[in-house]
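Retry 2 of 3 after timeout on previous attempt. Resubmitting structure tokens to design endpoint.
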């Protein structure tokens, strides 16, 4: 296609599968390619944002990084959906719990994503847009967790524009039943909705904002594989 390669993805049209599993950390993407894909081929290394295409149980699938924050995932998912023919994107990442029912290592399947970002303003919607995941992916992820025996909850997350916030107001989000805070899923869901495609966010609790529990960067990179198992079960 005339629009590929794009400014941020160095692949040609056809190099990327219709299903892409994404992670913020490119090293987590490399881990997924090595652990799950047969015959992975590197299709992107622009700005170090690794992307590979291979097969998983005979099905063609790609894995790719998306960086940190709504702006970054917004760019990559827009290009994937609109220029590369991608139909389904599943984000696997980490999140901080603001729920007494979610603990380190638990999976949170994002049925919906609140946000303090103005990402939705570009669509000029006369009100608030509810950013929701694709139902069959949400249901499939929950079914996989049950089958695999993984601890999980399905619910609402907060996609925050800020990692360091002067006034996070976590108590306000907790009062509305929000389970965890991350930084990307709302933009993914909005881009999926606008392009008529499918999306899901699955995050592992890496720290607990209420108790102060936390994991190391190395643990987050290498040990959070349960969410990957679930994501690949949906391919």
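Retry 2 succeeded. Sequence:
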């Amino acid at each position: 296609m005339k629009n590929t390669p794009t400014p941020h993805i160095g692949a040609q049209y056809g190099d990327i599968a219709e299903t892409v599993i994404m992670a913020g950390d490119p090293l987590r993407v490399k881990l997924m390619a090595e652990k799950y894909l047969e015959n992975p081929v590197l299709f992107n290394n622009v700005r170090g944002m690794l992307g590979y295409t291979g097969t998983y149980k005979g099905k063609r699938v790609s894995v790719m990084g998306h960086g940190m924050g709504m702006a970054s995932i917004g760019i990559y998912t827009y290009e994937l959906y609109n220029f590369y023919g991608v139909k389904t994107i599943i984000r696997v990442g980490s999140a901080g719990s603001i729920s007494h029912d979610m603990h380190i290592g638990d999976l949170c399947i994002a049925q919906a994503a609140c946000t303090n970002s103005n990402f939705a303003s570009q669509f000029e919607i006369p009100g608030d847009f509810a950013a929701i995941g694709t139902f069959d992916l949400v249901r499939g992820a929950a079914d996989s967790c049950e089958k695999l025996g993984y601890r999980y909850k399905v619910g609402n997350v907060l996609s925050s524009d800020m990692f360091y916030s002067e006034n996070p107001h976590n108590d306000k989000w907790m009062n509305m039943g929000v389970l965890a805070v991350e930084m990307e899923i709302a933009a993914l869901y909005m881009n999926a909705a606008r392009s008529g495609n499918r999306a899901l966010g699955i995050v592992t609790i890496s720290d607990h904002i209420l108790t102060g529990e936390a994991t190391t960067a190395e643990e987050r990179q290498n040990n959070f594989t349960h969410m990957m198992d679930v994501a690949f079960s949906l391919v």
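Attempt log closed. The longest strand covers residues 198-208.
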